Amino acid sequence: MGKQHSPRHGSLAYLPRKRAKKPVARIRYWPKTTSKSPVLLGFSGYKAGMTYVYAIEDKKRSPNFGKEVMCAATVLETPPILVCGIRVYRKTPYGLENFAEVWMKDPPADFNRILTLPKKVDYTPSLRNIEDNFDKITNVRIIAATQPKQTSLPKKKPDIHEIEVGGGTITEQFEYTKQLLGKTVTAEEVFKDGQYVDIAAITTGKGFQGPVKRWGVAILQHKGRKTKRGVATLGPWRPTHVRYSVPRAGQMGYHQRTEYNKRILKIGKDGREVSVKGGYIRYGQVRGSYIVIRGSVAGTEKRLVRLRQAARPPTDLPESPPQITYISLESTQGK
User: Whole-model pTM?
Assistant: First the structure.
């Protein structure tokens, strides 16, 4: 009888599996774009819930090409983001360094909930400093704030994060952001129907879980000693400690995850087009603009979801946006 084949349970790719620092995901990489004019490389929205749609399959290599197929879809409510600041970086041997930043005048009253901005500041010297040192600047980003008061969320505190500007030269990028400062940007200005995007979000937290649920290890036979829902051995005598690769109980969920190449099925302005009867569970009605994503999205309802231009988009992209024939608006509560 040969050796028993027993591959390890669970992936070690995401260690340590601990809780995320914040409920807002971080984007650590912004892709290069082929656009000759400056464009924003990202956007953000709030997860409302899931439904299903019927669409014409437009992938030429699919066996269902040209047929009507059903697929799950996630609805994100995407109120316009407010460009409240500009931040420029320069490259150093130790990574990117904040070179200068400029903030909008007269920010909304809700900003007092997240930070305290000085009431009277003259940003003219900062603007002049940036314009005199374009040769040192390598990255231009906007400081964007969400507007949750325009959604069904019970929160008033905006979420604030950076979004990089791509395309064109540094000078063109800075002039582009200067025009946006203090104004709002909609999802339709950043993305389009049928586009592939990367999505970063914090997954649903499941608390402290045992190794069976957390790692998927086998449940031991009922006549075994001491434990049934644990690993049979914690490792060898040497080294005299439990290795990191041994499945152990601990935190499960509430981790940051980035999914590549999620397709935008539809972008719209009227939330009634995608609001199910009775509203989405634990969210309610979609009141304003929205994005429908094919498939699932990490996180629970109401969670902020960040979208980014695809870092490694597929090569066989369909030429036209998807043709949606039906969006289910039936109640998800069975009523």
Answer: 0.93
- Beta 42-56 vs 323-327: how paired, if at all? antiparallel
Nearest residue to 45 via CA among 265, 258, 293: 293
Dihedral-angle region of residue 131 (phi above 0 means left; psi in -120 to 50 means alpha; beta otherwise): alpha
CA nearest 322: which of 290, 286, 294, 297? 294
The CATH number given to whatever domain includes residue 91 is: 3.30.1430.10
pLDDT at residue 1, rounded to an integer: 60
Residue-wise pLDDT tens digits, 65-107:
999 999 999 999 999 999 999 999 999 999 999 999 999 888 8
Burial of 48: CB neighbours in 10 Å, binned 0-12, 13-18, 19+: buried
Question: Per the structure, how many domains does the chain have?
Answer: 2
Instruction: List residues bridging with 199 in a β-sheet.
Output: 259, 307
Cα 293 to Cα 295: distance, rounded to the nearest angstrom: 6
Residue 211 maps to a domain = no
Asked if residue 131 has pLDDT above 70, the reply is yes
Angle, nearest 10°, between helix axes 170-180 and 124-131? 160
pLDDT of residue 87: 95
CA distance 24 to 266: 24
User: Which residue range(s) make up the domain with 287?
Assistant: 43-78+193-204+250-335
**Would 32 be classed as within a structural domain?**
no
Query: What gap in Å lies between CA 228 and CA 5, rounded to an integer?
Result: 21
Strand partners of residue 53: 71, 327
- Cβ atoms 108, 214 nearer than 8 A: no
d(CA 166, CA 197): 15
CA dist 100 and 91 (Å) reads 13
